[in-house]
Amino acid sequence: MGIVLTNIIAIYHRELQSYFVSPLAYGIAGIFWFISGLFLVMILLGPGGILPTVAAYDVQGQQFGVPVPPIDVPYEFMRAFLDRLSWLLLFIIPILSMGLYAEERKRGTLELLATSPVTNWAVAVGKLLGVLTFFTTLILPLLGFEAIAISGGNPPMSPIIPLVGHLGLLLLAAAILSIGMFISSLTDSTLLSAVFTFGVIILLLLIDSISKAIPGPIGAAIGYLSLLKHYNTLTQGILDTSALILFASYIILGIFLTAQSIDALRFQRQ
């Protein structure tokens, strides 16, 4: 067990270091922060944004003497912002995951990994933890802006809601990265890996809409597999165990398929 953990940490450090010396990774970070900042401003101050809408309701209430129902601005902002970030993952995740194994194939180092004493599971887990850590560093700067945006709420928002919501965001990213890692292990083309991962993400995010068109228990079963449905549950601050189990299942499935893919390559080399 100690040897496996040591191997995972070594792969993790190697993968994480590769992101922090990559110009592409810095470009992804800059684009992600810029678009996220636009989302934040538009949700709060843009046409149809939360603050102009609340102000318009107050003016109408004063003009017509009608009591205006209170609007939980911090809660509505947090839900809307996390929703936009989930769709931003549609474009960010394929770029982050496309080179996890495809670059190894292209450089010829995947064969070394496949024939090394390090288990395929250790390699897959180390790589997934590395790219997930890099994604987490993209999220961290946004927390400060979110804190400023919700700090004026009265009564103040419970910290459980943003904590559970961001946990959902990380689990959503991990699940999609795990599947993208498997796709990356099947090809030496980073572009092909990104395109297929993009298609799979669309399917996984829209599967809830597809299930609604299928009546009966089959549609309900398909709907349960929806990442977006369970993610929305977490963004409401509801720590649902079924959502946690589903995300964990996707993550383990991606790691398992990746390990099997590399195991097949190892068998071919032998």
State the gist of this model.
The chain is an all-alpha fold. The chain has helices at 2-20, 23-45, 50-64, 73-97, 102-107, 110-114, 120-150, 160-184, 190-212, 216-224, 227-235, 241-269. The protein has one domain.
Description:
The chain is built from 12 helices and no strands. The chain has 270 residues and is an all-alpha fold. 33% of the residues are buried. It has helices at 2-20, 23-45, 50-64, 73-97, 102-107, 110-114, 120-150, 160-184, 190-212, 216-224, 227-235, 241-269. The protein is 81% helix and 0% strand. The radius of gyration is 21 Å and the shape is elongated.
Give the helices and strands, then pairings.
Elements: H1 2-20, H2 23-45, H3 50-64, H4 73-97, H5 102-107, H6 110-114, H7 120-150, H8 160-184, H9 190-212, H10 216-224, H11 227-235, H12 241-269
Helix pairs in contact: 1-7, 2-4, 2-7, 4-7, 4-8, 4-9, 7-8, 7-12, 8-9, 8-11, 8-12, 9-10, 11-12
- Supply the number of helical segments: 12
Hey, roughly how much beta strand do the residues contain?
A: under 5%
H/E element string? HHHHHHHHHHHH
Radius of gyration: 21 Å
Protein structure class: mainly alpha
List the uncertain runs.
Answer: none
How many domains would you count in the coordinates?
Answer: 1
| Average of per-residue pLDDT values | 83
What general form does the structure show?
Answer: elongated
Q: How many β-strand runs?
A: 0
Helical fraction equals over 70%
Termini, distance in Å? 26 Å
The largest sheet, given as strand count, sense and whether it forms a barrel, is: none
